[in-house]
Design a protein that fits this description.
The complex is a heterodimer of chains A (102) and B (292). Chain A is α+β, with helices and mostly antiparallel strands and 102 residues long. Chain A has a single domain, classed as RelE-like (YaeB-like fold), CATH 3.30.2310. Chain A is built from two helices and four strands; from the N terminus they run βααβββ. In chain A, strands 1-4-3-2 form a four-stranded mixed beta sheet. Chain A starts with a strand and ends in a 6-residue tail after the last strand. The mean pLDDT of chain A is 94. Chain B has one domain. In chain B, a hairpin with a 2-residue loop joins strand 4 and strand 5. The longest helix of chain B is centred in the middle third of the chain and has 19 residues. The N terminus of chain B is likely disordered. Classes of the chains: A alpha+beta (102), B mainly alpha (292). Chains A and B meet through strand 1, helix 1, helix 2, strand 3 and strand 4 of A and helix 5, helix 7, helix 10, helix 11 and strand 6 of B. Strand 1 of chain A pairs antiparallel with strand 6 of chain B, so a sheet runs across the interface.
Chain lengths: 102, 292
């Protein structure tokens, strides 16, 4: 059984900003919302999808994924905490992954 | 820098060698010839220190170290040293408000490691500043490190120690053993209010968890000397370019640590929505915005 995924207000704002700023028009924005839901549902089914970087984020895995909407292809990521006892995943950060600097 | 290497599994005496009277030669390895033989880390600790470290002694099993003490010995020491019936219970405590942030930073580590040797203390503070620069873009302390005899150092650390001692928050024991000058800082047991930000607190906890008990040679060679400012340093007593690591970690993970902790606290306070509920609301918002 999967975990329930919850979002504190700051993360809600980050996701809303991402959708409303990166995508244009109702169709794109709704498609982006659907794509994010799909990806985060994958995470709630399998919390081990994220990777834990060294440092203070070692207890806060990061799950990175690509969103394809129309001709747009953006990479986003979410950092989260798993509360096994409560069956909860709290997404504590969300944002776009910028292009890799060459 | 790999900040997670070599984490010890349980508390051992990290300033003692695992077996035998080994001393850690600093600056080992290729490319560090200049630091080779600059210093020898102290690597002996007396049984007396073990006895004085009441909390640690009770918690430890004495792996080849003779740290065991009876409850009576511990209580005797507690009374004689003034730990029992001491100012720690005084209502006049100013909660450390009168000491600098640098001194409070030292106090944080001192109260977790009974009788912490000065050299280890300096390395912990240095690593906390490095990690803070990496993830917060600024140091926790105002120490200006330079390449010194035993690695990164700032003489102002002595001022911070003196502050703690003068405020009755710690005491320093200086002993001379086997040609090694031991400077150990011991917590007085008086609590103070720490005013670190949530991000700083997280970094301090991480530093303590990973490096407080790491064997000294490993802490030096695998961690401290692997940081960019130390790798780059060549001139004795020249300032270390700490800014080299600024925001390194933040860029690597793509998240702001303080913001993430803020969100965590919101959730802990029960302030959150399910993904489905939030996205349903957002969809309604998008639809109504475009219908206008």
């Amino acid at each position: 059984m999967g975990y329930e995924l919850v979002l504190p207000p700051d993360t809600q704002s980050e996701i809303a900003d991402f959708i409303l700023n990166e995508f244009v028009g109702e169709a794109e924005q709704l498609a982006a919302a659907n794509a994010i839901q799909l990806e985060l549902d994958k995470l709630s089914a399998n919390p081990k999808l994220g990777t834990s970087p060294p440092g203070p984020f070692e207890g806060r895995p990061i799950y990175r994924f690509t969103i394809n909407v129309g001709s747009k292809r953006l990479t986003a990521q979410a950092t989260y905490k798993v509360h096994t006892e409560d069956g909860l995943i709290v997404v504590i950060g969300f944002g776009r992954v910028g292009p890799v600097a060459l | 820098m790999d900040a997670t290497r070599g984490q010890p599994e349980k508390r051992q005496d990290p300033d003692l060698p695992a077996r035998g009277p080994r001393c850690g030669l600093l600056g080992r390895g290729a490319g560090r010839g200049q630091r080779l033989q600059l210093a020898r880390e102290p690597c002996q600790e007396t049984t007396q220190d073990g006895l004085q470290a009441i909390g640690a002694a009770l918690a430890l099993d004495g792996d080849n170290r003779g740290w065991r003490c009876t409850l009576a010995e511990c209580l005797t020491f507690g009374v004689c040293s003034g730990m029992l019936g001491s100012p720690r219970f005084s209502s006049e405590d100013d909660m450390g408000a009168s000491v600098s942030k640098n001194a409070r930073l030292l106090k944080y580590f001192v109260q977790q490691y009974p009788g912490i040797p000065r050299k280890r203390l300096v390395k912990l503070v240095y690593m906390a500043d490095i990690i803070s620069r990496q993830f917060l873009g600024r140091p926790i302390s105002t120490f200006a490190y330079r390449l010194d005899k035993f690695g990164p150092y700032d003489p102002a650390i002595e001022d911070a120690v003196a502050e703690l001692v003068a405020a009755g928050l710690a005491r320093e024991d200086v002993t001379w053993e086997d040609n090694i000058n031991w400077k150990r800082l011991r917590d007085s047991g008086r609590p103070i209010a720490f005013d670190f930000t949530p991000g700083e607190s997280e970094i301090l906890a991480y530093t303590a968890k990973n490096y407080l008990n790491m064997p000294m040679p490993e802490l030096l060679d695998d961690v401290v000397y692997e940081t960019s400012p130390m790798k780059e340093a060549e001139v004795f007593r020249a300032p270390l370019r700490m800014e080299l690591v600024d925001n390194e970690g933040r860029k690597a993970v793509g998240f702001d640590l303080e913001a993430v902790i803020r969100a965590e606290r919101q959730a802990e306070a029960g302030n959150h929505a399910t993904l489905g509920a939030f996205l349903d609301g957002l969809r309604t918002r998008i639809a109504s915005r475009h219908s206008k």
